[in-house]
Specification:
heterodimer, A: alpha/beta, seven-stranded mixed sheet, 7 helices, about 30% helix, B: Aconitase, domain 3, Aconitase, domain 3, five-stranded parallel sheet, 18 helices, 18 strands
Chain lengths: ~180, ~450
């Protein structure tokens, strides 16, 4: 099944990822547990969500998509919460609402985080696509069109560069 | 001279009323005015970092950008998460922090002086009207001084350090107005737990919160900091209080130059996203059950839940004002045999003052155990963490599952008064019967 909302030319089709349904109130202490925070990201990521979804860090595969409910990433400013997801290969986060700092962190790290309210159209493990540039997506397992809120243009530009640091690298390069 | 007022008269209308938040952001954006919802670039007046999200994280990013901090005089570094170092990793973090601060020429470095949100204003770095970023989620604490201060992660901090600026979507303002007066044994912490339950976590939807009303104006500076601090739990980007005489007196004692800050206020009729009018007279001590600050309810709603650990700690709950509240309850008392009382004063300066005036003595005589001036158990980063199945009552801000220790531990949040009283009783209890005001 192909995504009717994907207007890109054939060959650069969006990559479908497995959906992980995580529910409401996934806070940063769960995503990046405090006792591992002194370690490098590979160790923090290995313990991502261990108190609530012990199988997540072991079973998540590159390209998978996190689908959450309200208040995803509330709490701390520790950006390892978003970085752990990126390290594990999560392609994008779709949530009904976010902790504000997590939202900024995710985009700064080049991890698309989109506001999304069709949680009822996705079951755990469904194959879904999402285009971070438009918010258009598709549930390939169920044939349902998905639409997340689009991001402001300047954030899309930053995401396309791969996040804030590569974005600044380009800006600094253009100044010389 | 062509004053702005002349223009207003000429056009037949006064200047549009704006919020304190709009005024600060407009100034930082180099604009006459900004409107809620607009995305603007702002110049950062001050950037604060601690040892966890600071040097160890931003150093490799600045190296990648082949640049240094844009202005070392606008950067403050404070160690509070991994102090004192307790193993090889945490020692390495401290060594890196010291070395980097020196390399970058940052003079405002406070090593093991206490928790960043308390040390920053204590050393006179915060002034009304400033736009400040902090590498920690409780950065809204700075709003108590009429600054727009918000928390950011390390990548964004690296961007600020490289360029001196960042972006903001101009927030709306949620006005929380407390009329009346708090009764004895009820504190700023109770006000915030009550508001968390009323509005919910993220009830402020990453907008700005402003605290106002006579009960707020009556609060001491450190109690105002508790209000602004827990804006993080409401999900606000910043939490502000208009500067006034209390602010001026504090700034003077902290050695800060006092500018004229009469400009930093919200105009009557400014656009608000909401306005909650609450009555401080009616507020009772609040306790938030595990695992959310939004689970707050009056202390009387709780049964005698047995307590293993009573914790007075963190930027939220272990400032001098908080230690004094605990001491009022604990003076001449002993904690229950089933409970340990742990106290981690929020700064060295606050601890010294507490020692000099007898506050600390009252706590220690009640058999409290003193911990280091750091984030300690609240952050859950250190050597001290809650063991399996522990039940804790804490003066801190956040009781998420597993934050302060084992996933099986349970944390109740309350004011320093209620934590102290519960330590004496060995179970959750109302602090008011322990106060002389209620004994007569």
């Amino acid at each position: 099944m192909t995504n009717p909302n994907d207007s890109r030319p054939p060959g650069v089709r969006l990559r479908a990822g497995r959906a992980w349904l995580l529910g409401d109130d996934i806070d940063t202490d769960l995503l990046a547990p405090g006792k591992w925070m002194k370690h490098p990201i590979e160790i923090v990521a290995a313990h991502c969500l261990e108190d609530v979804f012990p199988e997540f860090a072991k079973q998540v595969r590159p390209g998978d998509i996190v689908v959450a409910g309200e208040r995803f990433g509330i709490g701390s400013s520790r950006e390892q919460a978003a970085e752990a997801l990126r390290f594990l290969g999560v392609q994008a986060v779709l949530a009904a609402s976010y902790g504000g700092i997590f939202f900024r962190n995710a985009l700064n790290l080049g991890l698309p985080a989109l506001t999304f309210n069709q949680q009822a159209d996705i079951q755990d493990g469904d194959l879904i696509t999402i285009d971070p540039a438009t918010g258009a997506g598709f549930n390939e397992s169920r044939g349902i069109t998905l639409q997340a809120d689009p991001l402001p243009d300047f954030l899309i530009d930053m995401l396309k560069d791969g996040g804030l640091i590569p974005h600044l690298e380009q800006r600094f390069a253009n100044q010389h | 001279m062509n004053s702005p007022m002349t223009n207003c008269i000429a056009t037949g209308s006064g200047p549009r009323p704006t919020t304190l938040t709009q005024k600060i952001i407009a100034r930082a954006a180099g604009r006459h005015s900004v409107s809620p919802g607009e995305i603007v670039m702002v110049k950062v007046d001050l950037a604060m970092m601690h040892d966890s999200g600071g040097p160890r994280r931003v150093k490799p990013l600045l190296e990648r950008l082949n640049t240094r901090v844009w202005d070392p005089d606008r950067v403050v570094v404070i160690t509070d998460h991994y102090v004192p170092a307790y193993d090889t990793e945490t020692q390495q973090i401290q060594t890196l922090t010291h070395k980097w601060v020196k390399e970058q020429g940052i003079n405002a470095f406070y090593d093991q002086q206490g928790i960043c949100h308390v040390v920053l204003p204590e050393r006179g770095h915060l002034h009304p009207g400033m736009l400040v970023v902090g590498g920690d989620s409780h950065s809204p604490t700075g709003g108590a001084f009429g600054a727009y201060m918000f928390g950011i992660g390390a990548t964004e901090m690296a961007g600020v350090l490289a360029t001196g600026e960042t972006w903001l979507q101009v927030p709306e303002t949620l006005l929380i107005e407390w009329q009346g007066a708090l009764t004895p044994g009820v504190s700023a912490k109770d006000m915030m737990l009550y508001v968390c339950a009323k509005l919910g976590m993220n009830g402020a939807a990453y907008q700005a919160v402003q605290y106002a009303g006579e009960a707020v104006r009556a609060l001491s500076m450190q109690e105002r900091m508790t209000l602004a601090n827990m804006t993080a739990e409401l999900g606000g980007q910043a939490g502000l209080i208009e500067p006034a005489a209390t602010t001026a007196a504090w700034l003077k004692s902290a050695g800060a130059d006092i500018d004229d800050f009469s400009a930093w206020h919200t105009d009557p009729g400014a656009p608000l996203m909401g306005h909650h009018r609450l009555n401080a007279n009616d507020l009772t001590p609040q306790v938030a059950a595990p695992h959310s600050p939004a689970n707050a309810a009056p202390v009387g709603d709780y049964g005698p839940e047995s307590i293993d650990v009573a914790y007075i700690g963190a930027c939220t709950g272990a400032k001098l004002a908080d230690l004094r509240m605990a001491a009022r309850i604990l003076k001449g008392q002993r904690i229950a045999s089933n409970t340990q009382l742990l106290i981690a004063p929020a700064s060295v300066q606050d601890q010294q003052q507490a020692a000099a005036e007898g506050t600390l003595g009252a706590l220690l005589e009640a058999e409290a155990r003193l911990l280091s001036n750091s984030c300690g158990i609240c952050a859950g980063y250190g050597a001290d963490r809650l063991p399996e199945d522990a039940v804790c009552i804490s003066s801190t801000a956040r009781n998420f599952r597993g934050r302060m220790g084992a996933a099986s531990s349970r944390v109740f949040l309350a004011s320093p008064y209620t934590v102290a009283a519960s330590a004496i009783a060995g179970h959750i209890t109302d602090p008011r019967p322990y106060l002389p005001e209620y004994r007569d």
